[in-house]
Amino acid sequence: MANPIKHYRDIEFDYGRCEQVSPMLRRVIAENPTPFTFRGTGTYIIGKGNVAVVDPGPDLPNHVDAIFSALRGETITHILITHTHSDHSPATRRIKAEVDVPAYGYGPHGQYGPKVEEGPDYEFTPDIFLKDGDVVKGDGWTVEAVHTPGHTSNHLCFALKEEKALLSGDHIMGWSTTVVSPPDGDMHAYVDSLRKIHGRDEDIIWPTHGPPITDPKSYVSQLIEHRAERENEILTCLKNDIGQIPDMVEVIYANVPQRLHRAAGRSVYAHLIHMVKTNRVACDGQPTPESHYRLP
Ligand SMILES: [Zn+2]
Known about the structure:
By secondary structure, the protein is an alpha/beta fold. It is built from 7 helices and 12 strands. It has a 7-stranded mixed beta sheet, with helices on one face.
């Protein structure tokens, strides 16, 4: 698929600097670059004067200081949370320690599971629970919550009506495909959530990690296509009697650095759960990371 990274790497920026990225959106990038966060978490600020902060970010005092200094003389009226990973929601607590502002989200983190990328934030609970289609109105801005389970079960995207823009959190990333790690991550739900976004009419997607996506429909089609290709690669492994996840990862992710293979294994596992459920793959008992998989 198209690789937007190259362009993005050329852009100069400083951590902590607040960048006006569109008429109604500002972004502050946290200094938490990892193999999963790219440059770091992009915290978005919606509006001017009375604003919403979307995903305050990781528990880093410097990042929260940068948000507050960008908002000097303004008021935070809403905190919006896309999902409960440690690079998205924990700084909510630091903001709420300073200002009395409600946090909106789908719910607390779903199922417990192994830490793969940025770990879950089990402490976060929204003050106000949002469900799919709920609309939040602020001073000059309107946001629709779009439930997009898959990366996590509680993942929301936020559609900014005035700009026909979608803040996609980690559901759609600007630089790589997202990690889907069972049990909370669900491949079937993820692909359905991609189709849901494909059916919408936003002109631009602003992900938490990576550059904006200006051709949402074709980009999201490529993501869906990419998952279908992965399933074909898994089927090819099974045809060649490669039936265990670590061996499949060695084949399918041969060109991916070793340090990402554990996360890749979780994604393959997520695919296999989905493929067993839809009777395209068989295994004895419930699918596990250690199961021997075969064609039915
Ligand atoms: Zn995440």
